[in-house]
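Lecture notes, structural biology module. Today: joint structure prediction for complexes of two components.
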Amino acid sequence: MQLIDVFPFVPFAFGLLTLLVPRGNQWVRILPILGAVLTLGMSLGFAAGYLILGSTETTSSTHPWIVGPWTAAYHVRVDATSIWFVLLTTFVAVPAIWAAWSYADASRQRGFMFLLLTFESTLLGLFTAADLLVFYVYWDLMLIPVFVLLAGYTGGAQARRAAWAYLIYNGAGGLVLLLGVVGLVLVTHTFEVLGTSFALAPALQWWLFGAFAIAFLVKTPAFPFHAWMPPTYTQSPPPLVAMISGIQSKAGLYGFIVFALPLFPDAAHAWAPFMLGIAVISILYGAFAALAQTDMKTLVAYTSLSHLGLVLLALFAFDVTSYPASILMIVSHGLISAVLFIMLGFIEERVGTRDLFAFGGLAAKAPRLQALMLIAAMALLGLPGLSGFAGEFLILVGSWQTQPVVTAISLLAIVIASVYALRLYQAVMHGPYRVPAGAPSAMELRPREILVVAPLLAAIIFLGVWPGWLTTKTAVPAAMPSRPAAYEVPHT
Amino acid sequence: MTQIAAPQIDFGVIAPLVALVATGLLILVIDLVSRRATRRMLYSIGIAGCVVSFARVMLQVGHPATTFGGAFASDRFSWAFDAIILVALAVSLSLSLGRDAEDGASPAAYSSLLVFCALGGMIMAAATNLIIIFLGIEQLSLALYILAGTGLGRPASQEAALKYVLLGSLASGFLIYGSALLYGASGSVALTDIAHAAASPSMLFITGFTLFVVGVGFKLALAPFHVWTPDVYEGSPIAVTAFMAVAVKAATFSVLARFVYVVFGHDVPALAPLWALAILSMIVGNVGAIAQTNLKRLLAYSSIAQAGYIVLALAGVTGSGLSTMVFYLAAYAFMNLGAFAVIALVGDGSESVADIDSYRGMFWRRPWVAVCMAVFMFSLAGIPATAGFIGKVLLLGQAIAAGPWGIAMAVVLVLGTLVSFYVYFKIVWAMFSPLEDGASAPAGNALVPCIAVAAGVAGVVLMGVLPQLFYSLFAT
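The predicted structure, tokenised, for the full assembly:
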């Protein structure tokens, strides 16, 4: 039994402890944050080797699990790729759970915290799973905490309906993935598929990649599979949406990087035109849709579609520059969307509405809120010096090498990004001060709230100033790169 | 003129059955001679008989044997199925403890009928020739027809019994007619001899087999022979419904599995009707469950779909298929018995509290009951870390490897599962709905159903997290 074996369960264990605390006791708030911080500490411990020593060694542990018609093992690991997802998860979970102090009425706070911590556990399990069955277990298991949070802990009828959109879309994606996983295992006879080359027949690869891709695109989400996203993001309480948008939306991209691309390299190239098409439509559709929103959370939700489309573009451009940039973009988007959703939560809490036309001019009353919101909005816009710019720029530079046409079209979204980001910021902060009747007069951020978002903003600035710190530490996966073919992508 | 020699009887092989016969008779005799025999006492005797029989089955595991000239067998087609039937019997007897007093059925008659019903199931699991199979099915069915009607105070129960007996006799007709044709085609009632005829099937054989499948399909509630299921499940007393859902399926699947493995031994085109029934059941069961608002009816449609899933274990007729079937049946037993135990617990002896509406906001009043019910629903939907998930992975693997029919079934299973997400999560969704003022809380709190629920949760989670324990148990 090693530390990595129990690592994904740490938040869950703290969640269980929280349930034991008597209702209304202050430990209901302290225990979850303690668990999240401890998990962050553990993940930093795992990361130390990669970040400081520059080692690429894998921390891994395997226990036999099922031996039947096929074998599966409880195989967990962090390596130079998955560590970034683990770090993102633990880093975003702390502010999300801290922010959750305000978002559940006292009688339901224990369950709320338990479900958030359980959600974090399933995400950590997903990002540490090296066995395909273990990966799949977490892939579907995360539906439960989110469904229950939406159905039982938000109160609104709309949120309860959003639970269905979330469940049915993600459940459908998961079942398609299940077909693909079982189909693959019938050939390999094991769920331990990483690091082995199976030389699958191209036709089989094509089908399996298709099944994996649909599931991954639903979870991300990308263009035709995104219908669950606006209601879910809009109706979720801020801590939950910070985790869904900041972390869970990376699960599908992680699946591409770690499973689909290395396992089905030929099919990945065969599917590339289709995937690039989805990427570019997501990028543009997300950007244009964001322009049209009047609900501030829905607006940010659509920007997610646009930005994660860029990551898809980076992955399927098969370029040695765009690939590490995709990880940078993933981390950056996780930080930016988490901080935005948490801050929008603070604002909604104060003004009591999400409608951009219903209030404005908060800058006059809340200079600190304005300053922090400005950084977040500029990061969303892609201002140089912040992480959003670094990711986008490197992706576009890289993708231009292999996919100039698609990249050129995607550039349009960068322009639109300034429009929606500035519109969001202006509508909230500038103009004459007005709030709906009945809103409290204190608009300024409380010290706790500043501390909640400060680490996220600091990380956004750090990665914006020094993106190379991250890009030089990401491992290039076997599937892509060693093919010089990266520069002569086969068109099928 | 052939001389008939009385075959040697090995009582060790039929000891689990003998234990049940003795239990059933003991219950009747005690009721006859003692005026002070309480319901609790009689049911406890039944449960004790279960335990003895179960222990005897476990001793047999790994030591295949036959008796009555090969007509009865104790082998891998019977052990696990026997175990499931006995667990269902024990749970069903325990759930009956809190029954409505106004039901009015005599406790002795009721409990001995349940025991004899389980006996019929175990005869089916042990039967290796058509006559014993029919004997077992009739033993099971006749007892069950009466049990369905033991809710004497409720017309729905009478209606259930009548529907069941009418349609059930028709199905028995199909079964016996099919058996007769199979006998005609092969010249023997023993499955091993019928296997010779199956090598080059005649029209007679195909017709006989198809009729046989119709009869079996009725007992399994496979579509399109399922129309009785919702009404009978809803009308029967809850403990009988639980038994019906689990034990009858286990017994009938043992017959089907033995027939397919012994007679065919490998995938043949003659099995196509079976695959078609499976596909139809998965569609009808899951789609039919969407509109249900009564939990017993919902679980009836669910059991139709699940029966379709379980048929997938036979796809390809491969060596691992039987282990897969046993695993899924065990998972099915845990999650269904658990769910019925929750309904019994919440209803507190009354049959009326089975509407989804009475589960609205359940989590905020009785969190533990709601969480347990949610676990059973997750397992039925095949969410990971539950028994239902591993079962589905095994079934999918079995089916996809089996060629075009198998792949078609796998795809339908996945689509059906998606539909079933709505069905099962609807209950979870209702349990987490906000509390409404003035709504009365169902307050059943009896100890025995609580134990059954807890055991069900333990089984579902254990099979989901450590499936190896169960998978290897009967894999010999």
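Point to remember: Chain A is about 70% helix and 5% strand.
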